[in-house]
Structures are given as structure tokens and as C-alpha cells.
Amino acid sequence: WITERKNVLSGVFYLAALLAYLPFVRLDSGPALAPRRRRSYAIALLLFACALLSKTVTASLPAALLLVLWWKRGRITRRDLFPLVPFFALGAVMGLLTAWVERHHVGAEGAEWALSAADRCLIAGRALWFYAAKLIWPARLTFIYPRWSIDSGVWWQYLYPITAVAVIGLLWGFRRRIGRGPLVAVLFFAVTLAPALGFFDVYPMRYSFVADHFQYHASLGPIALAAAVITLRLKAAESKGGQAGAVTRRPRSSAVVFLIPATCLAGLSVCTWRQAGIYRDLETLWTDTLAKNPSAWMAHYNLALIRDAQGRRDAAVAHYTEALRYQPAFAKAHYSLANALVGEGKLDQAVAHYTDALRAEPAWPEAHNNLALALAAQGRFEEAVAHYLEALRCKPAYAEAHNNLANVFAGQGRVDEAVRHYTEALRFEPGFAEAHNNLANVLAARGDLDGAIRHYAEALRIRPDYAEAHYNLGLAFHRQGRLDDAAAHYAEALRINPAYAEAHN
Question: Which CATH class is domain 400-505?
Fold first, then answer.
């Protein structure tokens, strides 16, 4: 995240394609230079394809090339447009492919993306000003910014797009006095940002309409403009006062020329160093995000997962709860919170959150399985069986659900059904030690001690430190009169778990 390597890689190819294309338009179209022009064009197209394969936001390159041509020449002709048709076509194809992937594979669809055309225009205008402000003053940068409440019925929200269009209009009106450069820089900024301005559905819009890395490429335009303005101002200052004055002022001007960029570079380096520390690890990243954006429900959820893994269950529950306060239909938070509540023995609350998770995602096999486990722990076996069966309908090869369902059937005395589901669990996951042990228990209860011993032995081959399987195998040997073998496995069970009361008996 901190390096955004795909932005760096795509940016290299993007700029290389631009540099390769410029000789194509500069060279004379005569026959002597035709091979060089064709070579420049082919290289530019190839580099553009590489940029698109790195990141499709670079699809705006042909539009940027037209802006550069207009800036240099003051006009766009059919001769300028025709060579760029393959660039536009390639960019459109890759852009549409990305949109399809975002919707159908990444999941950029649903209520968070149900935005009207007016809403999207409001987002675009506000995002432009947001990115411009962060570029000018990069303070309080955060991984997830607050998601704006967009309402096309609120008049002041229209000020963002209106003022953005007004700036472009003013720069157009003053282009003869100040040149076309400022207008081109602003248009480049807007055009390059277009894919991330809310007109196209992308998954990060679920959390926020803006993200710092969206403007990395687009920032080249305003940065180039600022550098040009500073350079021209310094040159103008040097030229004032005539030749004699210029000689006396040159040392001071040279110092200014050095100090301005050096100061900017030093300040930005300090900011970058401080910002880099936020990405030291995930815990630091999400903690910083919540310090700057307490409503970042995804940050609450991710920090809760970290706290859960650390064994800090109370903190995890608090963050899961906060995530659900800001995003009540967040299925993963309901599911993870339910898992944590099961660990605390709060089965009623856990069942409620598993149910909420399944209300949001009805075909979630793991949620059905865990809900069934909680219901079985409450003695609600028929409800548990229904959810195990639903888990298996969603995921027929779900070995854990087969094993858990078989456990319920075994407890109800439905031995044949239990054996069938244990066998299915082992068919899908042959290395499932618990299923071998459980199947062996049922076989032993049915009197098939040889079959039970085979499965106990297989469980121990897979998991040699499985104390319960050692104890159960000892029982089977005991029933067969193989007392030495039984004693050896009882002893091994106690070595692994000295507090194993049954093995002591």
C-alpha cells in the first residue's frame, strides 16, 4: 500500500509512451522519415499497452496527448486524431474490462453504488476540490477518508461542480493573456482523475469516494504547472533592472532558485518519513486510520481481527460492535463478532449475530455451520441440523459441516446417518483427524472394534499428539483384552495432557 507499485510501474510506462509518441508528431511525414515515425508510433502503442496492463487508470493517455498537442499548437486537427484512434480503442476495451471485473468479481454493486447521475456529478466536483486541496496542503492524510453524505437536494453541494467548471471557464477565457498551459494542466488533472471521480463503480467507493493514491498520476499536471510558474517568475526577476542590475542580483537569484525547491523537498521528505511510519504494520495503519476517521467501519473491523488474534477478546468485541454501529448490514462483522461471543460463552448473542450475518449473505456456508454449532450447544438440535444441511447445500464438499452434522446424528442415535456423513467428511478431507476419531467412536459403539481401531490409528498417524484419540484407542484395545496396548495409549494420552481425568481412571 505504501509503495503502490502498480502506480509506479504504470506511471513509468505511461510517461515512456508519451515520450515515444512525441517524436511521431514532431517528425516530418516525408518518406525519408517514415520508418522512424512508424517505429516511434509502434513503441508508443506498445508502452501504452504495458501501462494499461499495469493499471487501467492510464487509459486517459490519448486524451492527455491531445491536450499536449493543443497546448503546443493551439488546435486539434483530424490528422492529430486519427493516429490516436487505436489508443482510445485499447483504453476503452481495458476500461470496460476493469468495470466488468469490479462489478462481477470484486463486488462493486449494491446499495453503496446506487447513485444517480446528479449524485455522481456532485461527487466528482467535490472530489476534484478534495484532491487539489490535498495536493497543495498534504495534511492529515489517512488510509480511509470519511464517506461523504451525498444529497442532490442540498443546494450547497452543487457549489463543488459549479466552481470546478467555473475555474475551467475562467482559464479558457484568459488563455490568450496567460497562455494555454494553466488550462491544460487543470484539464489534465480532471481527465486523468475521471475514472476515480465516481462516474464508474469501483470497490473502494464502499468505504470512501476518495483515496490519496487515486491522484498520483493526475498530480503531474498541477505539479508541472507550479514548477513552470516558479521558473518563469524567477527568470522574470533575473531579467529586471538591466544588465548591470542583473549582474549584481544573480547570486541572490541563484540562491532563491536553489532554496525554493530545496525547502519544498526537505519539507515533503519529512512529511513522507512521518507518513511512512503509519504503514509499519497493519495494527499501526488501522489505529492511525481510526484516530483520523473514527467512523471508518472497515478499520474497526480489521483492528478487531488483530485484537482477536492477540487474544484481546474484549477489545475485539468493542471494535466489531463499532463497525456494526456504522455499517449495520456488514455480514463479516456480524460473523466475526458471533465467533468472539461464542468464545465468551454468550451463545444467545452469538446466535443473533450469526442470524444477522445470514440475513445479509444467505448462502454463506461457514456462517450456517457456526450457527448450527451454537444451536447444538444450546440443545436446539433440529435447528442445528437444518443449518448444517443448508451449509452442505451451499458447499457440498464442506468436510467440517459433514463432521459436525454427523456428531449431532450420533448424539441422537441416528448411527447410519452419522457414519454416512463422517465418511463424506473423510472423502472430501482424508487428513481430517477429528472425523477419523469421531467415526471410530461410532464404529466402536456399534461393536466394530477392528474398524474403530483402524480409524483411531489413522487419526494418530495424522496427528500424533491427539490425546483424545490415544484414550479412545486405549478403550478399544481394553475391550479386546489387549491390556498392554491399552495401557500404552492411556499413558500417551496422559503424557500429552496430564489433566486428562478419564485417562487417569
Answer: mainly alpha
